[in-house]
Amino acid sequence: MENETPADRAFRAAVRDWLRANLAGGFAHARGLGGPGREHEAFEERLAWERHMAAAGWTCVGWPEEHGGRGATVEQQVIFNEEYALAGGPARVGHIGENLLGPTIIAFGSAGQRARFLPPIVAVEELWCQGYSEPDAGSDLANVQTRAELDGGHWVINGQKVWTSLALESDWCFAVCRTEPGSSRHHGLSYLLVPMRQDGVDIRPIVQLTGTSEFNEVFFDGARTDAANIVGAPGEGWKIAMATLGFERGVATLGQQVGFRREFDGVADLARRTGALDDPLLRDRLTRAYMGLEIMRLNALRTMAGVAAGAPGRASNGGTTLHTPRNGRASSGGTTPHTPRNDAESSISKLVWSTWHRELGELAMDILGAAGLIADGEPYDLNDWQRLFLFSRADTIYAGSNEIQRNIIAERVLGLPREPAASREARE
After folding, report:
1. Which domains does the chain have, with CATH numbers?
2. Which of 129, 163, 198, 358 is deepest in the core (most CB within 10 A)?
3. Of 39, 126, 214, 248, which one is the catalytic site residue?
């Protein structure tokens, strides 16, 4: 990052030195493992690596120190993510707990919930998944139909979630459930913490284009969780769920973009080795991809600078940035930050990076040419570029589809007329 302070430079050096010393020996082979379309790779080894990080205090670096973190500033969180990606650190297995659930518990949970759930996230002893989307509540999250009813000292949960990342590996799920009979839309929802390893929870992997199964269907049939495992009050689930989604587009974005840089460099090298760089059209597309990557980086730095400066509409919680939702009508998918300006930043960022990454996968396939149509081996052994192409088809859909992001920008920022209800409902 530009204009780093002496403290930030010292922090960068400490992160870089630790990664260099520890991504070695028994963990050297873990470099670069995992990631989109490759979530099946060496899961136990990546889990061991992350617990090794935890023992040295390198998980949850942005959390307040009193909750087990380092209290790192926004700038230092950016630095950590950059250095981790540059070092080739393997894909994180505890990122949903660390980046989504943990900050939510810090912001909205009770003292008992913080004491119970935060330490195992820091130590990577419990893994989490997110129970939001349903067959009829994807982009239109407010249409959640999974029900939960109090039965003595427990919530009893019935319903179905879908596209649940890493559900098979997870110990717990934070789920949005309808707890008020007869309620509709974003009213009557609650945010529950549900143990996954129990009777009444059925997890069914969804085979993706890559042949792997990061995503899953989850069926709740009388699953139970303690009555105390509700974050906030009954009926506040929408507000809390939207705050959680706000964390999804935080400082890890810059680390993600360093990963994008590594992928771009690989595609450019592929073009040199295959002679595709001599094709003026492919060379032009590579140039445009490079320019797009630089624009993403500069825009992310500008956004993070606003966060660090305390831009209006954002609340900071011990180094972890919290986007708080408005009261009133909530958006369909994506985050609902406090001001239209923050809506735009979040939606523009998602729209730009997902489209860029999908196009990079298409460019890789065009550079490979006919060879890109042939698997490396039986029965379905894909190379890195084939996985990039296939998995990146989902980038413009998950975490808020491109259509939803464009609607948010058009309606809330540009002030354009709302999409007709019939058209919106048909699309959703």
Report:
1. 6-90 (1.10.540.10), 128-235 (2.40.110.10), 249-427 (1.20.140.10)
2. 129
3. 248
